[in-house]
Amino acid sequence: MQVKITNKSKHDLPKYETSGSSGMDIRANIEATVSLKPLQRTLIKTGLFLEMDPSIECQIRPRSGLALKKGLTVLNTPGTVDADYRGEVGVILINLSDETVDIEDGERIAQMVFCPVQKVALVEVTELTDSERGAGGFGSTGVK
């Protein structure tokens, strides 16, 4: 499947870094270094614009290395870029570490993964059938 992309950034197009990669790393496209204090969040622009088939979405996900090494993650994980959105792809980053973290222009800040979208029709009912789990949630199945 093909996705159309306009690259208005100063950087190369995103690409799969290995043959088994699920996501393509995307880079910060910023004029100056952004310093994020602990628990601070910000929107980082990428200079990328997408056009894709309505049967897919683009999910913006954290990079595991940034999360582990710097405490940076994508706040609304996964962020969704809908098929009909034509604006610039932005990444909401948050610093979950206890130190200020700098984000540099061109730094790989997140990854984008393209996923199928299944449209459904909601059917309103007054009752749902029982299941083995029932209404149990939020740890109801235990931790071990």
Could you tell me the radius of gyration in angstroms?
Answer: 19 Å
CATH topology: Deoxyuridine 5'-Triphosphate Nucleotidohydrolase, Chain A
Total helical elements: 1
Q: Which parts are unreliable, with pLDDT below 50 for 5 consecutive residues or more?
A: none
Mean pLDDT: 95
In short:
The chain has 144 residues and is mostly beta strands. The protein is 5% helix and 38% strand. The mean pLDDT is 95.
Description:
With 144 residues, this protein is mostly beta strands. The protein has one domain: Deoxyuridine 5'-Triphosphate Nucleotidohydrolase, Chain A. Helices cover 5% and strands 38% of the residues. It contains 1 helix and 10 strands; from the N terminus they run βββββαβββββ. It has one helix at residues 64-70, and strands at residues 4-7, 24-27, 34-36, 41-51, 56-61, 72-74, 79-81, 88-95, 101-103, 108-116. The strands form 3 sheets. It has a 4-stranded antiparallel beta sheet with strand order 1-4-8-6. The chain has a 4-stranded antiparallel beta sheet with strand order 2-10-5-7, with no helix packed on it. It starts with a strand and ends in a 28-residue tail after the last strand. The mean pLDDT is 95.
List the helices and strands and how they pair.
Blueprint: E1 4-7, E2 24-27, E3 34-36, E4 41-51, E5 56-61, H1 64-70, E6 72-74, E7 79-81, E8 88-95, E9 101-103, E10 108-116
Antiparallel strand pairs: 1-4, 2-10, 3-9, 4-8, 5-7, 5-10, 6-8
